[in-house]
Specification:
By secondary structure, this protein is an alpha+beta fold. The protein has 2 helices and 4 strands, in the order E-E-H-E-E-H. The longest helix is centred in the last third of the chain and has 18 residues. The radius of gyration is 13 Å and the shape is elongated. Bound molecules: zinc ion.
């Protein structure tokens, strides 16, 4: 599961790429800060996460 640091307390917030693409909001489990992840704001993190996911899919042979 990819994750980003919470902007407030730096705790890792795990997210699902598909949910980010739908502009879902996420809540930090440590400090309850609600953040909205958007693809444009997190392009670098998401591209990296997506590459890892694609690689994993290749290895598992799933689509
Ligand atoms: Zn936090």
């Amino acid at each position: 599961m990819p994750s980003i640091p919470c902007p407030k307390c730096q705790a890792n917030i795990e997210f699902n790429i598909n949910e980010v693409l739908k502009a879902k909001t996420f809540t930090c489990s440590a400090c309850k800060t609600v953040i909205t992840l958007t693809y444009e704001d997190n392009k670098h993190t998401l591209d990296k996460a997506k590459k890892e996911l694609d690689k994993l899919k290749d290895e598992l042979g799933i689509d």
